[in-house]
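Tokens as discussed.
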């Protein structure tokens, strides 16, 4: 248990630091929302958004994963507008502009499914239903693959997998990441000494960002 706790604390510091509610009875239509908000050519339901910061923890995430992005969320309709659903403490909805401002220099990156015609109204409703059930859930202090607690990229990955049976990003064991970077080594040593869980599987924001199933969206 002590080993598991140390492992979880390490990844919480890296992932969550880089970064209730009920659904309206109003019928959800992503097309109507986009038109009303003037976001037709910017954000769409199902988009995945990424940002980062320059904290020590986020710098370690970027060094370990080789990606400049350390946090992600998914854009979905709620209460008549598009919002970001994200796994922090706890899982929550956030206004898109507010979410953007939490990132370094207000910079975000947006990705969209290549085959975006698959994001039908029925799929969107399924994604919202899955995500809404998780609002208020705790951040994953054990960084595992169970459905009890959640971390940011796990939430996005599982929403897509549940709704479309797609894997937006490849899960990899800890040993596959760059653990030789001085900052990464320093934090790893602080968190769990000489016994890192090298075979623990994870999905990082960078792995989702690099998914061949996704394309860039200009914002």
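Sequence:
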């Amino acid at each position: 248990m002590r080993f598991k706790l140390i492992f979880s604390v390490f990844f919480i510091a890296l992932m969550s630091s880089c970064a209730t509610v009920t659904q309206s009875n109003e019928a959800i239509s992503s097309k109507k929302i986009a038109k009303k908000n003037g976001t037709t050519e910017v954000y769409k339901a199902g988009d995945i958004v990424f940002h980062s910061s320059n904290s020590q923890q986020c710098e370690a995430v970027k060094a370990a994963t080789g990606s400049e992005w350390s946090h992600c969320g998914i854009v979905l309709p709620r209460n008549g507008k598009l919002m970001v659903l994200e796994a922090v403490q706890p899982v929550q909805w956030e206004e898109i502009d507010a979410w953007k401002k939490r990132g370094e220099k207000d910079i975000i990156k947006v990705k969209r499914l290549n085959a975006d015609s698959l994001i039908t109204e029925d799929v969107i409703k399924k994604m919202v239903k899955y995500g809404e059930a998780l609002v208020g859930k705790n951040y994953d202090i054990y960084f595992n693959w169970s459905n009890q607690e959640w971390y940011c990229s796990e939430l996005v990955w599982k929403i897509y997998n549940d709704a479309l049976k797609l894997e937006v990003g490849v899960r990899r064991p800890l040993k596959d990441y760059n653990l030789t970077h001085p900052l990464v080594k320093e934090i790893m040593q602080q968190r769990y000494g000489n016994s890192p869980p090298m075979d623990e599987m994870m999905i990082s924001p960078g792995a989702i960002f690099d998914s061949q199933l996704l394309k860039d969206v200009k914002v």
